[in-house]
Amino acid sequence: MAMSFFDQFASTSYLGIPLIAIAIILPWVLYPTSTSRWVNNRLITIQGWFVNQFTSQLMLPLNLGGHKWALLMASLMVFLITINMLGLLPYTFTPTTQLSLNMGFAVPLWLATVIIGMRNQPTVALGHLLPEGTPLPLIPVLIIIETISLFIRPLALGVRLTANLTAGHLLIQLIATAVFVLLPMMPTVAILTAAVLFLLTLLEVAVAMIQAYVFVLLLSLYLQENV
Fold first, then answer.
1. Residues 203-216 pLDDT 10s
2. Can you give the pLDDT at residue 34?
3. Alpha helices in the chain (DSSP H)
4. Which of 1, 101, 201, 219 has the lowest CB atom count within 10 Å?
């Protein structure tokens, strides 16, 4: 019984087609594309307003060199939010509960920020490994600690996103199972548990959006250090 709770995180296939591929491709089909008309409909207008507001806030602390990442950051943000939100629907699969997928996003983007820093300003990039005013005996230790913390960044990005979404899905399934079990025996307790489940679902909607924003925000902070 306990193992069945984790079956929802298994990447299954149907007719030889892995469902994770469908879950990754599908979000891009849902978004409307701009038309050549002078006046767009409300959905396209709201979509454009959201992307513009998010991009302007994200690029605000960055210099002009970091603005080249605006399209990539905005696309990643919209993609992660859509996948996380679709994963809350019944009988769906959430690709962002897979650590391999999240690390596939985190490692290349983090590595790109590090390479940009080493290429454009190597002295400043290496200077982050040793804080100013460090006593001479602590220099080797601090360099090792800062190097380890630098390489832990992509792991923290991927694990944070995976852990938060996995924990939320497990809580929803556990409480939903409790509601079905308690309903024939204690209807009042089952109704109260269902109310808790509804509130938890609203919380998970917020978590799905916040975690996508935090993922992209941390990437922008890493980029800010290197441009």
1. 999 999 999 999 99
2. 66
3. 19-30, 42-59, 70-86, 99-120, 122-127, 139-182, 187-226
4. 1
